[in-house]
Design the sequence.
């Protein structure tokens, strides 16, 4: 990669500074590092030690070994051989416990070389032993996972060629040859490739065969680790999590993937796993079910398959907080359906259990977010549901969540939505009761602290009959306020939010 400082240039500059300014070794090293940093040049890939010291010589030998290994890999990427496998193994060991070597491998175009290996393995038509192919793929996946964990979302764009290849076709065959470790490694790599990167998700899901192969793998394996990593990958695929300014909203791609997964039978596969999985796997299975429950036809199919009843029963009996969080999240999504949410709200035990577990685990931010979102969804357009929630002191739980998670904008927004939906069609007596529980204070604080909560907090305060002023949080952190003039600005208010 051009533009990087070489170790040789850094060492030469260091020794020159030492001699020219009559500095100690420590001061010369400090001066040289500051010199390059002031010129905005990265030194992350360099050995920042004195070159003639025992430590410095050892680091430079290790560094040179990594560079030599990268050269060998670059030359051998099109020739799948034991020599390539040895070089991959050595590079992995060198980088495993050294962030410096990881940075060096990334900046010396190590990712570019590694990305091309899986396609070459798949296309290899020689009589090479399957064990060598599997070993090369496994070590390549492990190396890529290790290196990509140190990159930004934008740097992971380099993985598109890998994602566009039918990689799981090879791994699926390996299941029947007792190489499930390779499938687990592939799923782990796919997770890190697609997390916080919508374009990579689209690159992988663009080929419908990829989705079919994914569902087939999860259907045919009996290995819980394969199911765990595969479901974690599905959850990442179906959830929008790329908030880079250059990307913009891309919810549609996630919804398309959800529909394709449903078409391929993913809900049936998850139901099958729920019937036999250990307690370790259950939270992930229910969390995966949740990301699929974003389309009414899929929700209806879940209900018809008995999954809603199973989820409610599992929640009533739940003891594990991670499992409880997954189940509340699923109920939250399913409650987008007006008929089903009333069934959930008036279940003999579900509502009281939700509120009790929130009271007992007020520090759990994700649980509190899902619970506030569930209450908001159940109360929307349903006055009877809202009154039922108020009778169970649901507002108290929302206020406690907002008071505890002041810095969590998502909890604040969901809490404001819940209060607004509970207040919008409540009686005057019920509104007075809500105000007595401290809703005005938490709403005002949410509106002043988080830009994403301004519309929701204002709407809730308005419906409670409080005097409310719209605020604007500027980029520099300053806040301006003025009376709300409807029609001047298009409101961003949404009754529900996921």
Sequence:
């Amino acid at each position: 990669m051009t533009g990087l400082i070489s170790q040789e240039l850094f060492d030469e500059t260091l020794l020159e500074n030492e001699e020219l300014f009559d500095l100690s070794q420590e001061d010369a090293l400090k001066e040289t590092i500051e010199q390059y940093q002031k010129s905005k040049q990265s030194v992350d890939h360099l050995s920042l030690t004195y070159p003639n010291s025992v430590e410095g010589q050892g680091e430079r030998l290790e560094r040179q070994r990594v560079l030599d290994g990268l050269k060998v890999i670059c030359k051998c990427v099109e020739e799948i051989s034991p020599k390539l496998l040895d070089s991959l193994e050595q590079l992995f060991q060198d980088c495993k416990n050294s962030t410096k070597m990881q940075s060096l491998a990334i900046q010396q175009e190590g990712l570019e070389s590694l990305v091309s290996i899986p396609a070459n393995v798949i296309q290899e038509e020689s009589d090479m032993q399957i064990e060598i192919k599997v070993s090369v793929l496994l070590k390549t996946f492990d190396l890529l996972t290790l290196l990509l964990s140190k990159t930004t979302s934008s740097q992971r764009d380099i993985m598109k060629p890998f994602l566009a290849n039918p990689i799981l076709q090879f791994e699926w065959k390996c299941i029947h040859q007792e190489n499930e470790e390779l499938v687990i490694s592939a799923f782990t790599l796919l997770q890190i490739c697609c997390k916080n990167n919508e374009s990579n998700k689209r690159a992988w899901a663009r080929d419908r065969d990829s989705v079919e192969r994914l569902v087939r793998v999860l259907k045919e394996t009996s290995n819980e680790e394969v199911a765990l990593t595969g479901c974690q990958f599905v959850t990442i695929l179906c959830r929008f999590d790329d908030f880079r300014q250059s990307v913009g909203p891309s919810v549609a791609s996630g919804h398309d993937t959800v529909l394709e997964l449903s078409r391929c039978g993913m809900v049936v596969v998850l139901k099958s796993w729920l019937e036999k999985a250990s307690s370790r796997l259950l939270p992930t299975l229910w969390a995966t079910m949740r990301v699929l429950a974003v389309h009414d036809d899929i929700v209806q199919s879940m209900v018809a398959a008995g999954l809603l009843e199973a989820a409610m029963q599992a929640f009533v009996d739940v003891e594990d907080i991670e499992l409880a969080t997954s189940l509340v999240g699923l109920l939250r999504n399913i409650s987008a359906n007006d008929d089903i949410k009333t069934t959930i709200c008036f279940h003999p035990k579900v509502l009281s259990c939700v509120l009790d577990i929130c009271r007992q685990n007020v520090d759990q931010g994700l649980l509190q977010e899902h619970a506030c979102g569930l209450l908001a969804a159940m109360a929307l357009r349903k006055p009877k549901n809202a009154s039922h929630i108020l009778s169970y002191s649901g507002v108290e739980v929302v206020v406690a969540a907002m008071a505890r998670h002041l810095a969590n904008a998502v909890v604040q927004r969901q809490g404001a939505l819940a209060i607004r939906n509970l207040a919008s069609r409540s009686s005057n007596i019920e509104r007075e009761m809500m105000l007595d529980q401290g809703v005005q204070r938490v709403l005002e604080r949410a509106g002043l602290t988080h830009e994403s909560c301004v519309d929701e907090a204002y709407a809730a305060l308005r419906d409670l009959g409080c005097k409310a002023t719209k605020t604007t949080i500027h980029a520099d952190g300053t806040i301006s306020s003025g009376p709300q003039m409807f029609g001047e600005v298009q409101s961003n208010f949404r009754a529900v939010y996921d």
Notes: Confidence is low (pLDDT under 50) at residues 483-490. Strands lie at 470-473, 479-482.
